[in-house]
Amino acid sequence: MRHWSILFAMAAVGAVGAFVYAYFSPDWWLPNPPGDFHHSVSRFGREIDKLFFIILAITGAVFVGTQVVLVWAMHRFADETDSQGNPVRKADYFHGSQRLEVIWTIIPAGILVFIALYQMGTWAEIKYRSAAPKVPPLAEVTARQFQWVIRYPGPDAKLNTVDDLVVVDDLHFTRDRMALIYLRSSDVLHSFFLPQLRVKQDAVPGLTIPVWFDADRAGDYELVCAELCGWGHYKMRGKVYVHETEEQLRQWIDEKLAEQNRSRLTMTTAPNGR
Ligand SMILES: [Cu+2]
Questions:
Q1: What is the pTM of this model?
Q2: Residue 174 Cα, ligand 1 centroid: separation in angstroms?
Q3: Which residues, in sequence order, are CB contacts of 129 under 8 Å at separation 6+?
Q4: How far is the CA of 181 from the centre of ligand 1 (A)?
Q5: How far apart are the CA of 127 and the centre of ligand 1, in A?
Q6: How far is the CA of 150 from the centre of ligand 1 (A)?
Q7: pLDDT digit string, tens, across residues 63-76
Q8: Which of 109, 157, 189, 225 is spaced 20 to 30 Å from 72 by Cα?
Q9: Arithmetic mean of pLDDT, 119-141
Q10: Cα(97) to centroid of ligand 1, in Å?
């Protein structure tokens, strides 16, 4: 049955085709701003994408190589019968080959060691606390079922004081500046995920974890929870807005504060009929 090899070849060609198509499609797996889906907008994003492509190239080459061998073997050793219906060749087998097993253990092990060493610099830059930027924190982000509570320092520029601004699901920061947040959880495990900036960090109850990131393009992005944290997990979706300048960010915080003070005032005066 020689044509089985054709079916397997088509499956492999289809799989490679899907990858090639994906690269030219806006639904490409690495989310980027619409209209420019090949350019990550953050420094970490570019580094992570580079690692992603290296791994994709290695796994892609191995996939194509093994598929070629598979299809060739199916084609070359398909069963054949002569005109009397007798097999042309007898089935043959052997009990493994030590040399082959050594080869296909050493090569993947070597590749894994290479990736482990190669990614260390990027990992250190994104995750090591010693690499955290020496800047005042942008905000404290507390995950809870099912929202992100974000606390920005108020006019005194200090966190956890009475003049802080507390909002829900609304993360704002400034372009071209490392933003540092302190991530916490008040109930279960959540995961702070900024897909366009390639930032992902678990929020762990009892821990305060510094997370830092930047964006080199102003605009709207998204914040989602990437850890199944309960029935309303899907609702843990926040807005991210990157301002052009620090003044604009400051202005947004001031406006929000004024708005909240106004509503607090109406709340306290309303029962007395004004
Ligand atoms: Cu969550």
A1: 0.82
A2: 25
A3: 210
A4: 17
A5: 21
A6: 14
A7: 999 999 999 998 88
A8: 109
A9: 93
A10: 49
